[in-house]
Amino acid sequence: MDHVALFDETSLACSKLITKRYSTSFTLGIRTLDPRFHLPVYAVYGFVRWADEIVDTFHDHDKATLFADFRRQTYEALDTRFSLSPVLHAFQLIAHRYSIDRQFIEAFLRSMEMDLEDCNYNQSLYDEYIYGSAEVVGLMCLRIFCEGDVALFDRLREPARRLGAAFQKINFLRDIRSDYEERGRVYFPGVSYEHFNDAVKRDIEADIRADFEAGYAGIVQLPRAARLGVYLAYVYYLKLFHKIRQLPATQILGGRVRVPDNTKLLLLVGSYFRYRLRTI
Length: 280
What we know:
By secondary structure, this protein is an all-alpha fold. The chain is 76% helix and 0% strand.
């Protein structure tokens, strides 16, 4: 193997390691995809995780400066098809291989920048944030799964967006307390932390349920090589959503809702059998 190919493979392996260290659930989902999709999706996850870490974790550093440098290096890597950062080098390899739209990348970076700002989320900013932080990540993965089939991508674009939106809104509900305590914000427009109650919670849940239904319609149309992995993410978030729906608003504010590891394993087994029986 020549040294350029070795550098490429090592960079992709770094993204795989990042995924395994930061998200056991996401790693499990990737492993249920066809093996040819593993490294590409790891590369996408590594990129979005590193950006998210800058805005959410490094409080003792100048996060705005760090993120500006990350943004500059991202576009430099895309333009030159090279980076000494393994995460960015892996991502640019996959972005070029699967024609991931620059617009998706820019929307994602903009949403991460919004987390550096002290802003109140009206409907417009809320929609922009969800699109950039979640929907476009789904669209990046959809580019990979469609493997150049533009017609299939266009047909599944809207369901992929709705599924990503559902996942992000559930995250917002699950993390409403920590987002308020650590960042002083509630992402849901027109909702204050002090007045979050059961009626408000039901309205949010109705919106999420509609996104889930639209997203599922796309899952069953995915290529079979990608379907099980996406379906597993869907049933995991659906389980989390059902747990949240069963709790009063006061309990959601009291602590983070989780899906136990043994339940995740059962969801994996059930999803696998549904996939093998071709009921999904």
